[in-house]
Amino acid sequence: MPSTVILAMEYNSSSRELTISYVSGQTYVYKDVPEQVFKELKASRVKGRYLRFFIKDKFDFEKR
User: Fold this and answer.
1) Is residue 58 very low, low, confident or very high in pLDDT (cuts 50, 70, 90)?
2) Does 47 have pLDDT greater than 90?
């Protein structure tokens, strides 16, 4: 399902990094994210809300 906040997302299972490209043009790499969290994000009907409650402020990140 499309998101008004997330442009693209990618998960690297070996490094456990979740890369989120936002509609705003910013890209963040969230560190040590369990694969299950990525699966739940992908399955979520409201991805921006899931991101806000279960990923932001929960995982270290790097802005790219």
Assistant:
1) very high
2) yes
pLDDT attached to residue 30? 98
For 14, 20, 23, the CA distances from 54, given in Å and listed in that order, are 21, 14, 19
**Residue boundaries of the structural domains of the chain:** 6-63
Spatial separation of the C-alpha atoms in residues 18 and 4, rounded to whole Å:
18
List the one residue out of 55, 46, 7 whose CA is nearest residue 27: 7
> How many beta carbons lie within 10 A of that of residue 55, not counting itself?
19
Reply yes or no on whether the pLDDT at 1 is more than 60: no
Contacting residues for 35 by C-beta, under 8 A, at least 6 apart: 11, 13, 16
Tokens 């991101």 found at: 51
